[in-house]
Amino acid sequence: MGEAEINSKGKRWSLNGMTALVTGGTRGIGQAIVEELAGLGAVVHTCSRDQINLDSCLKVWKSMGFKVTGSVCDLLHREQRENLIETVSSVFHGKLNILVNNAGMAIHKEAIDFTADDISTIMVTNFESGYNLCQLAYPLLKASGNESIVFNSSILSVVAISLSAIYSASKGNFQLI
Ligand SMILES: NC(=O)c1ccc[n+]([C@@H]2O[C@H](COP(=O)([O-])OP(=O)(O)OC[C@H]3O[C@@H](n4cnc5c(N)ncnc54)[C@H](OP(=O)(O)O)[C@@H]3O)[C@@H](O)[C@H]2O)c1
Predict the structure, then answer these.
(1) Which domains does the chain have, with CATH numbers?
(2) Which of 30, 46, 97, 103 could form a disulfide with 18 if both were Cys (CB 3.0 to 4.6 A apart)?
């Protein structure tokens, strides 16, 4: 097996030479995605709202031999998304192979009790920000010549449970054709 075919996991699968942006990579599923992609050889950039937690994760990933950078971004805000993609463009020299829209949140309430702020926060975090990141990252993805976009959805987008009306709506399928 050639050297290029082996990654840190010692498997044939390899993402060597690939770049990835994973939103919300500092804990939970996003953290696992960062570590999986980096373990397969990708260079990864991630973001969260918490600088201290982000720095702590970056330190751990460095000690594991992973190539991961990170920057603070609150995806609720359009200008911070623009700054994030500018940073990604700078770090990855204008080329992005993989965009993982992972960051998300939920507020659980009776359907009748959701406030306008609740609805806006859930829909912007889970739906609008990911959609907008696709638009902003489009030139970088096309420039890479080998691009993938992943959305972290939820079973709740197809199965209704109580207290999750807005979260379910926010996790509906995108059609990026
Ligand atoms: N856990 C589940 O059972 C489950 C099931 C199905 C789908 N999902 C989906 O999977 C994704 C990850 O879920 P999880 O349970 O791993 O979540 P989590 O543990 O709460 O982690 C969420 C990550 O996103 C970041 N984040 C949240 N809001 C953000 C914002 N406005 N701007 C930037 N970063 C933000 C958080 O960092 P900071 O808080 O520090 O910013 C954190 O790194 C979500 O989209 C969720 O809807 C989860």
Answers:
(1) 18-170 (3.40.50.720)
(2) 97
